């Protein structure tokens, strides 16, 4: 298998141990190639002529790094092209490091992390278009001649409109279990551009990097600019294997926090009561999640404010003190009550932002991004502004938000870190005039630096990455977080779709799935409580509704789901994912399963997405089991009488499949699978 990867790599121009680097530079590469690197020297010259000065190889436990040290023949510019190749699975990372010793700064006008070529053929490209509340819609087309550009220009988030990931299917449209497949994601949280240039000879040249739009980087002498890593997985058997490689890589190489820690089952207050926080309501919600068997409670937006109250989304960001009009006794009684009920406590913050209606903005108007002489462009609530994360004082302020909270309340176990506004005022009061075009990048460098400080001091706290839902679903930020809020669209039916592509790159323990209310506030849809619970059970399970408005039946079903989820939590959060029936395939169902490494335990899910009489539903063929073993399938999350268990061989389950009992609109089923004794 390894040999095959190497052959593929050579084919794609990803250097192996013997081949040369493959990275078009402006000035001396073929003029018809789009450049991956374009630099303007201090004297105005825009060309580079690089030669290989050295090749360095470094082997670590999990990977081998190969670095091409390139120098310009005329200018003191050094480019290090870095390629990391993993030993245990078909995964690579590539990035570029550039530095110089010219007398004055040089300008990086294009600085891609990586470039590779896919040979001509029946190649299809999928990218993940979307919007707020509709993240990650797979959009696929056959690559024809010409250039495709996938980009995001939000500035603070980068996964709503289009995510920084693409998949190439080399043998026709993308399939889950067939075909040579290359999946790539840029590990960056800011603006990016992914380009695919199909030339006249049918070769597909892929480039990925930070977007240079309004973002040409001024590089001072002796400074080293390191691009984000481009992570690439390869499979000869479709998307599913690429996903399992990504999941393993994320867990084994520090791309997510606490990769093997069981994630707690929680209730979040947001969609239940929004800003209407009171001590009584918080205590009631803590009691409710405790009664249903949960483990953590998160008090969302609305708990803070001084001069300005946070009663809606237009005020008080930055004024991170408890609003004593809502919580007269502060946070401690809530935390104490939670602990008395065996529940851990979590809290929402949105640290990188403020509102025009805030004490912070009144005191530090120069801490927000703004263009001198221009009217402020306002975000959420028509008042929200982005803090200048390039400014070390602002970085300290953001660090202190977390530091003050946890030093004052050491029992805070969970933080939800939100980001709800785009970077719309393109100006930093902190950066010098001649470095304003560094802003888009320096913002994220400042954010990462701050998160590194937070993680160094608070390695244990669980932190959720939220950005109006899944706006920051990227591996640039995930190394500092445990999980993400996949979408603000928490309608369980839509969540089947949104989760499907989120799981292409991110493991299930990072994907927060919450039982929402019905009818759902965004779609008006009524969904059975069992369906909503079953959907939450294939991610990091939680609830997000007004627990006081739940019927007795809903409470009983949720308690059952929580109890059963505890049994399967290691499988969901650590197991191998097999997506079985895509909700995008118009087969009226969606199905997936997780299997443990030993192939002795698994969990299978099935959902009816629409129902008409006489609709034909295919049997679902399971995956990842041992053909020679006999398995027992027992229903989970059932209140009352369960169906009789199914006992079949792994071979039958995988080759013939089974009929899922999905006989009505929004029917759903969860089977715990174990070895038949
Ligand atoms: C956007 C998030 O995605 C929601 O879950 C919630 O936390 C709100 N912000 C709060 O303002």
Descriptive terms for the model:
single chain; 677 residues; alpha+beta; ten-stranded antiparallel β-sheet; eight-stranded parallel beta barrel; 32 strands; 21% helix; globular
Q: What is the structure about, briefly put?
A:
This protein has about 675 residues and is α+β, with helices and mostly antiparallel strands. About 20% of the residues lie in helices and about 30% in strands.
| Radius of gyration based on Cα positions | 26 Å
How many helices in DSSP terms?
Answer: 12
Strand content: 25-35%
By secondary-structure content and strand pairing, the structural class works out as alpha+beta
Molecular shape: globular
Uncertain stretches of 5 or more adjacent residues: none
What is the average per-residue confidence, as pLDDT, rounded to a whole number?
Answer: 96
Measured as a percent range, the helix fraction is 10-25%
Give the ligands present: (2R,3S,4R,5S)-2-(hydroxymethyl)piperidine-3,4,5-triol
CA-to-CA gap between the ends?
35 Å
Total beta strands: 32
Largest sheet: 10 strands, antiparallel
